[in-house]
Design a protein that fits this description.
Domain Lon proteolytic: 154-237
Signal peptide: 1-28
Largest sheet: 6 strands, mixed
CATH architecture of the domain at 38-72 and 109-255: 2-Layer Sandwich
Radius of gyration: 24 Å
Number of helices: 8
Helix content: 25-40%
Order of helices and strands: HEEEEEHEHHEHEEEHEHEH
Distance between the termini: 76 Å
Keywords: Signal
Protein name: Lon proteolytic domain-containing protein
CATH topology of the domain at 38-72 and 109-255: Ribosomal Protein S5, domain 2
Structural class: alpha/beta
Number of strands: 12
GO molecular function, one term: ATP binding
Strand order of the largest sheet: 6-1-5-8-11-12
């Protein structure tokens, strides 16, 4: 004959499957990636011993100041992210928990992702070169630009590449540096017509920029609210939608004349 269970025993036995389920969920892989501020690189200088921008066919100028492209680093597409990882990073201001599909194309292998990012980087560099030469009214048949940035993929450095080419060829248009000698960072895609597009991860990129000494950050206007969410102290945001707008803002900032947009 079975003995009658007390209420406390019954609750304890019923709780066992729940505890087991929670324990399993805590360690089971989830479809998320954890991102953090990544490296930055001054496109006016060298990265890993190689000049980022090399120009032939036209005289270039010596620049001061910096134009820093920014990145984020995320757990790999095959990394195991658990519930514990998600909860542990959810409320951190220097981390972002993002759907894996938002970081990596769904279903792609690591090699496919690397190839995709490399293609996007090449397309971004080509568009940046065309946009810069068009802005300066220079011929791509005469002026040749080579861009080199190791171990970075994707299109988000397009705006900074373009500004770097312009600064090396023309500066602010009157002999001065486009940067005004400042350490300026930013992010944004660009097309050959000079339109600036959003990129994602800007709250983490502003942290990377300030960590590496930037005091001004160029952000696609559509992402102003994201950039302001965790804006580091001492970093000024300038929203941009076009290449001309970005150049005009930097010149106004340098000369102290004219309006400088704010988010």
């Amino acid at each position: 004959m079975l003995s009658r269970l007390t209420r406390s025993q019954a609750v304890a036995i019923c709780a066992l499957p729940v505890v087991a389920l929670l324990a399993t969920a805590a360690f089971a892989p989830l479809p998320f990636s954890v991102a953090q501020p990544g490296m930055t690189a001054n496109v006016l200088g060298a990265n890993k011993g190689t000049q980022v921008i090399t120009i032939s066919g036209a005289p270039t100028r010596k620049t001061s100041g910096q134009l820093r492209m920014t990145t984020i680093e995320a757990t790999g597409p095959n990394a195991q992210v658990s519930l514990g990882d998600v909860l542990g990073n959810w409320f951190r201001t220097d981390r972002a928990v993002m759907p894996r599909d938002a970081v990596y194309p769904s279903g792609d292998s690591l090699k496919e992702i690397e190839r995709h990012n490399a293609e996007q980087m090449q397309q971004s560099q080509d568009a940046a070169t065309r946009a810069a030469l068009k802005y300066l009214d220079l011929s791509g048949d005469k002026v040749k630009v080579r861009l080199s940035l190791a171990d970075v993929g994707g299109p988000s450095a397009g705006l900074l590449f373009t500004l770097g080419i312009i600064d090396k060829l023309d500066g602010d248009g009157s002999g001065g540096d486009l940067t005004g000698g400042r350490d300026i960072a930013g992010t944004g895609t660009i097309d050959a017509a000079g339109k600036v597009g959003p990129v994602g991860g800007v709250a983490l990129k502003t942290q990377a920029a300030r960590r590496d000494g930037a005091t001004v950050f160029l952000v696609p206007k559509a992402e102003c609210s994201d950039a302001k969410a965790e804006l580091p102290k001492g970093l000024r945001l300038i929203p941009v939608t076009t290449l001309k707008g970005a150049v005009d803002s930097l010149v106004a900032l340098e000369k102290g004349k004219g309006p400088v947009p704010v988010c």
